[in-house]
Amino acid sequence: MNKGGGSGGGSGPTAAAAAAALQKQKALLQRVETDITSVVDNFTQIVNVARVSDPPMKNSQEAYMMEMRASRLVQAADSLLKLVSELKQTAIFSGFASLNDHVEQRIAEFDQEAEKTNRLLARIADDASASLKELESHYYSSAQRLTLDI
What we know:
single chain, mainly alpha, 3 helices
């Protein structure tokens, strides 16, 4: 997607967009890492707490701990789903951006073609004008014109 030529740390919209994209990518990767770690840790804790024990007090504490860990697990999974949705939107909108770039490129190509056509038409008009003047000159100096006027 990078339209810049080379890795010379240039300025302008392309370099700024590349820097912003890199920063966003790092933030998204950090979110993914954090959310996956949270899912794994909470699932591990749920499995560890799920052991059956005899004292009723401990069972209620373990049940509360499992509920808390399950809630955290659901939150982390929800965060991952939101991240996937955000990535899909980014892919869609970057697709529109590349489509816009392509349209702008085609517009520039057509503008160049229009200029080329206009120059060609101007040259043809000049040639036609010169030919017409030459024909007029021959007509007005011809002997037949003089005989027709009389």
